[in-house]
Amino acid sequence: MITSVGTNISIARWDAPFVLAIKQIQWSIIAVLGMIVCYAIPFRIWRRYSGVFWFLSLWLMYLTLLPGMPKVYGASRWINLGVFSIQPSEVLFVFSVIHLSKKLHEKDISKRRAFFRTILMYALAFFPFVLQPDYGGAILLFVLMMGIYVEAHGWAYPLTYGGALGAIMFIPLLFSPYRMARVLAFLDPWEDPRGKGFQIIQGFIAFANGGLWGVGLGQGLQKLRYLPAAHTDFIFAAIGEELGFVGTSLVLVLFICWFAVILRFYVDFKGTITGTLLWGFAISVALPLLVNLGGVLKLFPMTGVPLPFISYGGSALVMMWARVGFLLGSIRDGLSEQKA
Known about the structure:
The protein is mostly helical. It has helices at about 1-15, 20-40, 45-50, 50-65, 90-105, 110-130, 135-155, 155-170, 170-175, 175-185, 200-210, 235-270, 275-295, 315-340; strands at about 80, 85. Strands 1-2 form a two-stranded antiparallel ribbon. Strand 1 and strand 2 form a beta hairpin. The longest helix has about 35 residues, at about 235-270. It is globular.
């Protein structure tokens, strides 16, 4: 799909048709190698030094705020390393799962102390998200951390305090014309079909063109400057046009199978740190999946979250496959602990 929808972009930027496809193949190879490394290193080592990795990822988040860092659509979310750029938030999400799961399973920790420890971790990460700005990322991290806490210690504190904190987070939305424009476009995209509602409407047209079987791989028209970000945020709509309802259903079935495998192991490890880790990693993939699909299908306002494992991108793809390595490693160590 990257090859199909990225051809015209590659020609426009580099005067060659397959540049994006080649770059994605390179990143895929790096991602799979990263998965192997994350699995090969015993997970107890990742868990032991999770605090170091988490603070390092947090430090990278603050580095994005330094002058001279690259900006994409006015947001400083990247660190330029010369040969390539990385998005530190992707690293932070992964190590937040590992470190928070570890902290919530410390010996004799109370529910109250565990909750405020969760809030403290979130508060430290909240400020760089807001300053970048990446408000969608801040919300996703909040939901992820609350979800991990609920799995380990129940709903009591999140229902009591989490709702109030979540409401406070939405206050900046009222004072941000850009974010309010996205919300208004979500509510009625046809009010401004050539402006704020353009992306959503073009996505609907792509799905309508595809019908049941699609117009054929490489034959889509919406990617030709009609559907913005067809290789990233709106790649699901591009799949809908070229491969139809059958193609999009197949994508969803693959994700369902992926989560079903995790659920099978989660049932065996429920109540342990391994169970919390599996739960956290599953949520860290489910959240961007639901937000991306919801934005494309007009169920949620668009937030610029890529489709996991499928959208074009380097650091996001690498960290998605790193999750797979960590999942396999945590299951391996969990099984070893059960035998012991």
